[in-house]
Amino acid sequence: MKKVLSIAGSDPSGGAGIQADIKTISAHRMYAMSVETALTVQNTMGVHEVFGIPADFVKKQLEYVLEDIPPDAVKIGMLFSADTISCIAETLDKFGAKNIVLDPVMLSTSGKRLLDETAESILIKKLFPLSDLVTPNIHEAEKISGIKINSIEDIKKAASLLSKRCKGNVLVKGGHFGECIDVLYFENQFFIFDGKRINNPNTHGTGCTLSSAIACSLAAGKSIPESVMLAKEYVSGA
Question: Which of 55, 109, 157, 179, CA to CA, is 20 to 30 A from 140?
Answer without folding.
Answer: 55
